Amino acid sequence: MGSLRSDENVSLPILFSYWSRIPHGSLGDHQMEGVGLESTASSSTVEDSSNPPPDDANPFLLEDTNLSALDGIQHESSIDHIQHESPSIYSPTSPIPVSSPLSRTAHYSPRSPVWSHLQDLSTIQIINEILITLAPVLNIMIVDMPLRSLHPRDDGQGVRKLLRQGFEALVNIEELVSISDELYLDTEEDSDEPPVWTIWSKLRRMALYDVRINERLWSEIASCPQLKMLVLSKPNTWPGGPHRENIKEQWSKAADFKEFTTAFVDWFYRGPNFWPFVPQWHELDPQNKLCVLKVPLYPPDEEGYDRHDPTRWPTPPDWLTQAWIRERALSSTLWSEVKTSNTFTSTKKGQTT
């Protein structure tokens, strides 16, 4: 693949992976492991595609711990036309047990115990330039970055502003999966900055992790003109858990109902219980324009994963949740699987589930 031109009209799936791979208990030398990013142009274009990217539009990945930013490719900045070579940084591949895809995170900790690598300004500057350069052609993106490891109050270098600027440029995004958080790009503590994805007018499908469920979220979702599907993994709710949340009532207070599907993905023992709200939902939304799904997760069938005691699992449930989303996003099956693996689906008035 040669240098990218800003006028190339292609669909470009891409993944950003930016984690420090440090074994549990290791506080020795911390090697910066930067950005893992791969892109592959498909034959479809943003302009002539009237439908969401198909489930078989695979966002390829070199390997989940590869840290080169479009490694070995020349990038031409759309701003200053300066070409640069992306850095290549060695990164080991973590062992993956064959018996269960949910065990991929079982042999390393994906978080540095002492320092956020988001503080590496030179790397963030490269990310900013890559995002701005790819903005005209990028429409599918999977993000796996520790955006909450550096809070605005600790950001003395303006790193978060650079990241937000880069992501705001991605106006052609149609599909977003944020694996590790809600795409947290606030630049000020306790600010009212809208989520970056609210300015992406072409956004059609989105998956977010650990999002606070409230009326503000549904108002922001409803403001996205093309958004038709939302997957929420490990939803962050008010005290009491997701079963305390009346989703359709919240939506009705925030916006008019529109044709939309939202899926809640979480572990079987803490997943939402929407059944008590069904009678009210039939009155609020008799045509079921807002379709609500519940997708329970179950532990791998391996030693150490006792369903009755998740606190003793070799890999914490939250990391396994992220692994579940990541694998299905990379194989382009996430959107279809939540529709077929759910144990609850809201219905029209008069229908039974």
Can you walk me through this structure?
The protein has 353 residues and is an alpha/beta fold. It has a domain at 223-353. The chain has helices spanning 121-134, 159-168, 215-222, 247-254, 278-284, 317-330, 334-340, and strands at residues 13-17, 36-39, 74-76, 83-85, 140-144, 175-178, 205-209, 229-233, 260-267, 290-297, 344-345. The strands form two sheets. Strands 2-1-5-6-7-8-9-10-11 form a nine-stranded mixed beta sheet, covered by helices on one side. Strand 9, helix 5 and strand 10 (290-297) form a beta-alpha-beta unit. Helix 1 runs parallel beside helix 2. The longest helix is centred in the middle third of the chain and has 14 residues, at 121-134. Mean pLDDT is 74; it is low at 19-114.
Name the descriptors.
353 residues, alpha/beta, 9-stranded mixed β-sheet, two-stranded antiparallel ribbon, globular
Global Rg: 20 Å
> What is the string of helix and strand elements?
EEEEHEHEEHEHEHEHHE
Q: What's the number of helices?
A: 7
Structural class: alpha/beta
Report the span from N to C terminus: 49 Å
Instruction: Quote the beta fraction.
Output: 5-15%
Described by strand count, sense and barrel closure, the largest sheet is:
9 strands, mixed
- Let me know the average pLDDT: 74
Read across the widest sheet, the strand sequence of neighbours is 2-1-5-6-7-8-9-10-11
Count of β-strands: 11
What is the general shape? globular
